[in-house]
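User: I'm new to structure prediction. If I give you an amino acid sequence, what do you actually give back? Let's try with this one:
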Amino acid sequence: MAVKNKRLFKRAQKHIPSGVNSPVRAFRAVGGEPFFIKRGKGPFVWDENGRRYLDFCASWGPLIFGHAPEGLLKRLARDMKKGTSFGAPTAGEVELAGRIHTFFPAIEKCRLVSSGTEAVMSAIRLARGFTGRKKIIKIDGGYHGHVDSMLVKAGSGGATFGTPDSAGVPEELAALTLTIPFNDFEALDKVLRREKKSIAAFILEPVPANMGVVPPAADYLKRVSHWCDDHGVLLIFDEVITGFRLAKGGAQEVYGIRPDLTCLGKIIGGGLPLAVFGGRADIMDKLAPEGPVYQAGTLSGNPLAVSAALWVLDELEKNNFHKNLNAKAQKFFDGIHRMIADYALPAVLNTAGSMFTLFFTPDPVTDYASAKKADARRYARFFHHCAGQGLYFAPSQFEANFISAAHTEPLLNRALEVIDEALEN
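Assistant: Good question. You get back a string of structure tokens that encode the predicted 3D arrangement of the chain. For your 425 residues, that looks like this:
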């Protein structure tokens, strides 16, 4: 690793736990030491040593327009002069809430928060308060931020009581979370028979991206939606990643589902800290001060983040944005599919819209159990080969990568050449 990056990492470890502010950034999943990013522009990032990378990590999903788009920079420079935080209502947040409803009709009312974790935490509390029930269902391998009750892993069997996946999470709290395999409707039905009237909500990413990208099986989401409706269980879509990524209206637009509650984040903030939770008006009206469910935040509705969000929504409505982005991404994906076939590789490329994961396993990846069979060591070799040739992919086998509007066809063709070299070797 370049000297400047190495020195920074050594210094960081003296003042920051493990030298990073989020675990995956430490490169433990691929080995080596992390890049320290100095700046980004368009589809590129530069590390502290001045090395340039074509970025497919995209800050873990938010940067659908690439780094530092000029229009956003101008908007923020203009609005920063008005103030950076008020802790009071603003006209911008009213406009944004209305715009969100036009993109996501299921979000009849919403509240703005500062992170996806905060959105999920609030949505779960609200679901419990609205239903009077305590238990939450999540999918095995599903990640919904570092909310205590969501940091659980599945045990054996189709559905088990959660056990803590992190120190500091009380077993009593984790036991309120039930985990089941993704794409397994029978496991969901089994939970109902066992738990009956104790389940408040089922939360899932409609297209999981935090075990790597795993598309839903045909009709799975519709069956889940009908099941929740039939049994008074709230359906929460965590669209922190898929929202505004797969389509203007996220995965719920693509799959024709109307969840009771939705969590949004990442793209909507344009790279600034902003997230949303919202849904049916009768549920949202249970929030304080009118209702009994408390939720608050000093920086909720931060004016700069709101300004960025309004710019983002404007841009997403221009020039068939998602149609063009997804078509460009599909051409790139087709190239990788051909390589896998030509080299007869034990690998699977899972995609959804403009996001993708290359799993080094010969078998289809349809849930967490099949994802875990992927060869993480082989992915690490792939990662470092590509990084050495100027491509920056997510530093973990079990994460999503992203195509942005800033990735041009010539750049993607060059990336395919590098990927071809990596896969051939």
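You can read the tokens as a compact description of the fold. Here is one thing that stands out. The longest helix spans residues 321-342.
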